[in-house]
Write a structure and sequence with these properties.
about 220 residues, 6-stranded parallel sheet
Amino acid sequence: MATYVLIHGAGDVGWYWHLVKAELRERRHDVVAPDLPCDEDSAGLPEYADAVIEAIGDRTDLVVIAQSLGAFTAPLVCHRVPVDLLVLVAPMIPMPNEAPADYWTNTRYEEEVHEHYDDEIALFYQDVPPELAAQALRRGRRQSEAKLIELSPLRSWPDVPTRVLLCRDDRLFPAPFLRRVARERLSITPDEIDGGHTPALSRPKELADRLEAYRLSIAAGEP
């Protein structure tokens, strides 16, 4: 049995993972999906990592999964506790000492060809069932940007097997953009899954299957 540690993205809550959480628990794994203090102006990346570490407690055999902005928190967690595997889903992949607010400029995001969406459903939840997408919006929180201008305390990428999973129909981080960033920043060719930016809601079983396949490959000693 593993412990899956699920880290949500910007302005979100641990509920985002509830369908994946159920899938993983059916497979007899322990799962934690804490709410990060992302709506608090006094909280930044160190406090986000603290929230995750507190949720982990004394659990072991950790598999850390991070969605979107959660990828800035995940490597900090991996430096503080032993982790068997790190998986970044539709992620913002950080560089050491990078402020989240600088990510867009540093990755040349605006140079990519992509459409602009003013509607949150169209941008984040285009393939999520409408009632579930509406619930996600109701549960979402204000993302404080007060501390996102501060440099990340990350000094180096953790020595943990890392996988990147992009979503082919992601409207926030289009596949060509994320393929390039993963290659430039981690020398990783991402794996790919169908769907938009929020696969934990649109494809929870398929996502859980991918996570389990990653875990089993690491347990088998595969690179």
